[in-house]
Design a protein that fits this description.
The chain is about 45% helix and about 10% strand. Strand 1, helix 2 and strand 2 form a beta-alpha-beta unit.
């Protein structure tokens, strides 16, 4: 295992270098790390918190891709899956900065797909809704908030990590070989439900 703080460029470089040394190459890159140190109105966010969100949720993905994609392209094949969020599709009165970072990941995906597709590298996103992870613990451990979310979700529940993993596995596999620059939304129907 290689420890990596994605907000530190040298550690990101060491991660890709170490993985390449150990496995011989990186065929699939899943960009799954994110932070959200701020919960509240967007115009009240401190610069430091905003910079941390954008650095960890967007810039680190650029760093990871900058080190992993060129060797993939040299081999003529590779896959990148960026874990975004439905927060990038919807406005929020309390998660605005996080949503901005996740919308930026959608754009990053589309741009990289256009740049690297001609060299055989596919880049796609997965946009989960609320999933029972440690990252979202504050949202799903609050019984009132969980009940409200489930009531507004067509499937009447939140997601489980393996349900997101299935979408990632699809995008990483040859079953999606004609797909790039796209986002798969895995949210139990939240973004399709009427407000």
């Amino acid at each position: 295992m290689i420890a990596c703080n994605i907000s530190r460029r040298e550690e990101v470089e060491a991660l890709i270098t170490g993985a390449t040394k150990h496995y011989g190459k990186v065929d699939i890159l899943v960009c799954n790390a994110a932070v959200n140190p701020y919960y509240g109105p967007l115009l009240d966010i401190e610069d430091e918190a905003f910079d941390k969100i954008m650095g960890s949720n967007v810039k680190s993905n650029i760093w990871l891709c900058a080190h992993a994609i060129p060797p993939m392209a040299a081999r003529g094949k590779g896959v990148v899956v960026i874990i975004s969020s439905i927060a990038g599709l919807c406005g929020s009165t309390v998660l605005g900065a996080y949503g901005i970072s996740k919308a930026a990941d959608f754009s990053l995906c589309r741009s990289l797909a256009g740049e690297w597709g001609p060299k055989g590298v596919r880049v796609n996103c997965v946009a989960p809704g609320l999933v029972k992870t440690d990252f979202a613990r504050a949202l799903w451990e609050d019984e009132a908030r969980l009940k409200q979310r489930c009531a507004a979700t067509p499937l009447r529940r939140i997601g489980e990590p393996d349900e997101i993993a299935g979408a990632v596995a699809y995008l990483a596999s040859d079953a999606s070989s004609f797909m790039t620059g796209q986002t798969i939304v895995v949210d139990g129907g939240v973004t399709t439900a009427a407000a």
